[in-house]
Amino acid sequence: VNCTGQALSAVPSGLPEDTGILLLNANHLTSVSTAAFLPLAVLQDLDLSENGMVALNTESPLPSLRELLLSRNALVALPNLQGLPALIRLTLSYNTLQNLAPEAFRAVPLLQELDLRGNRLETLPGDTFAGLRALKDLDLSDNLLEELPKELLQDLEALETLWLSGNLLRTLPNDFFIDGHIFAYVFLTENPWHCDCDLSYLRNWIRIN
């Protein structure tokens, strides 16, 4: 069901109960509750991007939801992800997230794609991504990250693509990358890398990989 750009200020009622994909992007849904989607028992993909959203109440579970798009809103905090156990794709790019809690994504262990690009993240706890053993794509580009904990990637056994571009990184800690892990892509451009001995680990890792 495509409700894109309809100037909606509330989730419309009477949507077909067999709706699997619901596009609500580019509306005026500044506050949304997952309770509005409970009649949609087979809903798998939900696009709520570009709504100026400041709050997403997720108290009502959506057990079949696989994709949740929340990009280009005004979220300052990560919504509670309990009740979304089937989620495999979550986009939160271009919001105003400033921090993430330890084990912030523990409730969505099947997640494969996580987009946090273009927020205001300055630091991350070492266990931010704990439990995300299925995660393949992680985008942390265009934030305000000055340093990263060496444990950040320790659970990300399936990670294929990592974006760190456009931050304030000057170096990476020793053993930041999991020994023997093979990436498809790692993007490191547009950081103020400081070329001294502290950068030798990263330089050697790039040469080997």
From TrEMBL:
<dbReference type="InterPro" id="IPR001611">
    <property type="entry name" value="Leu-rich_rpt"/>
</dbReference>
<dbReference type="InterPro" id="IPR003591">
    <property type="entry name" value="Leu-rich_rpt_typical-subtyp"/>
</dbReference>
<keyword id="KW-0677">Repeat</keyword>
<protein>
    <submittedName>
        <fullName>GP1BA protein</fullName>
    </submittedName>
</protein>
<keyword id="KW-0433">Leucine-rich repeat</keyword>
<dbReference type="InterPro" id="IPR050541">
    <property type="entry name" value="LRR_TM_domain-containing"/>
</dbReference>
<dbReference type="GO" id="GO:0005886">
    <property type="term" value="C:plasma membrane"/>
</dbReference>
<dbReference type="InterPro" id="IPR032675">
    <property type="entry name" value="LRR_dom_sf"/>
</dbReference>
<dbReference type="Pfam" id="PF13855">
    <property type="entry name" value="LRR_8"/>
</dbReference>
